[in-house]
Amino acid sequence: DGTQRLHNFSAGPGTLPTSVLQEVRDELPVYGTAGASIMEISHRSADYDAVEQSARRHLRRLLGLGDDWHILFLQGGASMQFHQVPLNFLPPDGHADYVLTGRWSVKALREAKLLGTAHTAATAEDTDFTTIPDRDTWDLSPEAAYLHITSNNTVHGTQFSGDPEAEVPIVTDASSEILSRPMNLDPYGLIYAGAQKNMGPAGVTVVLIRDSFLARRNDDLPTMLDYGTHAERRFNTPPVFPIYVVEKVLRWLRDQGGVEAMHTLNQQKAALLYNRIDRTDFYEGIVARNARSTMNPVFRLHDDALQPRFLQEAKAEGLVNLKGHRSVGGLRASLYNALPMEAVEALVDFMDAFEQRHG
Ligand code: PLP
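Above: the input record for the complex with pyridoxal-5'-phosphate. Below: its predicted structure, written as tokens.
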């Protein structure tokens, strides 16, 4: 009847836990004892401060961030980070290395090149970004200021397996996989992620920076674009409402058992869907098997002409936002943390039934 929550496979913004949305709804007009909503009170108030501190505490615990990591809540999306990273860390007389694994890393490289010298250490462009270049083939320089990767490629449905090693600090765009698995933080200098896939609503970008990496940044940066400004103090009005929702999602994640439990569940969800895709020739996976993303499985129907029907009949079953990115086509079922196993089971059942009807 149009008022019910459906199984939402959207790639971004992604689905959020229903319990979090209900809590937000209940607290919307009056937050705690503030006598107003969280949106209407000072970002310097004790009420808001407690929310932000709690979000930091939960992130630190969930990801195992030590005291040498700064947690920043910035605006401008992950796209702003494409520029802010090289602005801060690409030295005027040096260079950075970039591994290109899709549309977003190409955009990141473009911004770096506007500011200085950026070298393509590896690219999957020759396979239409259906692979992750083999680590042994990366052309890395020990003099690079940093190595930039995109650890999960939302559009193409590929993902690095684990955390790569490099001699220089790695900067990763983890927008579409952050908090979906435990991370080995050792190789990283900076991790960034728009909140709107796995953490909350659009409007806040989480940036994690190791203190020793932060210390290497360029001089004379514009105040708002200098990570140091935000690492030192709360400089201006933060995106209060998105941070408030992120805090609830982080608490929800803790209650689910944290990133280890979530990783196990995410692997089970992805395996269920990929096994269904592989079971017959009716459906086809698009990317290399060893590069398959747990977060954004991309696939298609062997008979492409059936796709509009697939989407229409799926929608009638309450399964929505399954269309692939316009640049790739086909289908994409994003399986972010908040998407329950039941949703994947419902999708797989639907895929079976659809094949029976049209196969
Ligand atoms: N990086 C990745 C991996 C993404 O999936 C997206 C998605 O939109 C972006 C960057 C761009 O993020 P934003 O829209 O927050 O700028």
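Notes for the reader.
The CA atoms of residues 269 and 341 lie 6 Å apart.
Residues 12, 77-79, 104, 150, 154, 173, 175-176, 194 surround pyridoxal-5'-phosphate (CB under 6 Å).
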